[in-house]
Structure formats: C-alpha cells, structure tokens
Amino acid sequence: MTDETPEQPVRRQVGRRPEEPNLPVETHPDTALASQHEPTDPREEQAAEWGIAALFLFGAAMAVFFVVVYVTVPIHRDIGQLSNYALGGSLALSLISVGVGLVLWAKTLLPHAKAVQDRHDFHSPPAEQAASEATFFQGVDDLGLGRYKVLRRSLLAAVGLLPIPAVMLARDLGPLPGKSLEPEGVITAWKKGDRLVDSVTKVPYKLGDLDIGSIATVMPEGFGDINDAALAPTILIRFGPGQIQSAKELKWSSDDHVAYSKVCTHAGCPISLYERDTHHLLCPCHQSTFDMSRDAKVIFGPAARPLPQLQIYVDAQGYFRASGPYSQPVGPSFWERR
User: Fold this and answer.
1) For the chain, is the Cβ count within 10 Å smaller at the N or the C terminus?
2) Is residue 197's pLDDT more than 80?
3) Four-residue CA torsion sign, 329, 332, 334, 338
C-alpha cells in the first residue's frame, strides 16, 4: 500500500488583495467568511447618506420633469429639437443620478470585507448551503436599508418614478385612428361626373375603345395636381360577357367595364401586370395578386384587402364617367382596416 496525499480543495479568494490587512474571520467547517464595518466617522457617514439621497431625489425630479416636458412641449417646435433635447436630457440625468447614487452607496456605506471559500466540485454540502444562506442575509443586513431611512425612502422615490417616462412614451402608440383615416368625398380627386381619360394622352374613353381582356390606366378629366397623380390612377378593364363573378362588381360596372384603383393596398405600388386569361392583376413590388373578376379579392401576397372599386357609367355621348368618388381609402391599409 502507498500513502497518498489527499487532494487539497481549490481555494478562491474574493475581496481585498493579499497585501491588504486581514479582517477577523468567522470560521465554518467548509467556508471562511468575513464581513464587518470598518470604523467610520458618524458625521462622514451621515454626509454620505444625505449626498446619495440628494442624487436619488434629483433622479426622481428629472423623471417628473420628463413627464412635464412630454405633456407641455410641442413636438413640432423647431423641428422637434427642443422636445428631443429636453426629453433626452432629463431621462439621461435621471438614470445617471440613480446609477451614481447606487455606486457611491456601495463605495462609501457598504462594509469592505474579504471572503475565502473552499470550492468543491459538482456539489455543495448542506453546511455550505447554510453558509451561503447566512451570507445572503448578512449582505441584506449590511446593505443598511433598515438603518439608512433617508436613503431607503429616496431610493424608493427614484425607482418608483423612473418607470413613468416609459409609460408616457406608450402614448405615442395611440390613440387609434378610428374614422379619421377615412374622410368622405376627399379620398382622391375623383368626383361624380368625371370623365375617364387616358393618363398619357388625356383623351376620354368611350364605349368600344377597349377590346375584351384589355386594360387602360385612366385619370379624372382635368387632373394635373401632384396629389391627383398620386392617388387617382385607376385601371379600366373590359371583361367578356358573363366573366364578372361578383354581384357588387357587376352592379358597379358598365357594359362589362370595371374600374379599380391602381394603387396596391399593401405598400402603394402601381399595379399594371394583368393576365387576361385568369383575370389576375399582379403587383410587381411584392407579388400581391388580385382576382379582378371577383371584386379584386386578394388571392396571394401581403396585401390585406381588395383594391377599391370606382363605380362608373356611360353617358349619352358614350363616354365613361365616375358615379362618384371612391367609397373607401385608396392605397396601403392600416391596422384597423384589413
């Protein structure tokens, strides 16, 4: 038999460096820990407490100032610079003040201690678990929340007010638009009685100008404003007899001709890729596909709703005219309208 030297447990040192003077250590079978207050001048301790409390209270005041600025300062003044500087500065000062106060609390009021602990592999003996629990509660006691009432109250004030700026920022998510995005009669430049004219030549379209399966981009007669050009483009399509499958679409058509907005309801791209055999209209940007024989129903892609239809009729001279403006918003959808 041979004598073997038992393996020594790995020891880990936490706290002061070796050259610093040792503090008294309370010995445990597995753990040696030390935690005690160094002698301090009560006047210095009180001064540190009030100084840290002042930082916490300043952080709380900056959080309140953030709310006041958010509510009272117009966001459009000076292109938002005043609002941005005030909001950003007050929130930054609030966070910095609380952070600096916590650091100074740890540096000036918490005890300086050294702990040397035996580290065993893969398990913690019951005695070590008990020692860890005792150490935790000792740390809670060393934190001094029970002794430093001013610090406790000022910290609670700062931490309690800090979430308020985040709650105020949530106001920018609302309110819901309701009907504000659906003005009546001013959706586009189209109005009752407008003749449908070619978007390039500005020549009015008459019954018989389009062959079956053909499409044309039309605008209201007399258009010219940039807003008209952005919202008014409309596709005029001629179907064959019996090809229109939607009752509403058929009602709003005239002699197998239908008119729909050319602006995609997904991202506002202009649509003009038409398959005459399938009656599908394809958006070139994100491949949203609309079945034009079934009230422009979305059959593929990210578009959330069908294309708006423009109700048309043929006047006594054979020209196509609008029966009125679009009955719903033209262009991309929003979250309340899908």
Assistant:
1) N
2) yes
3) positive
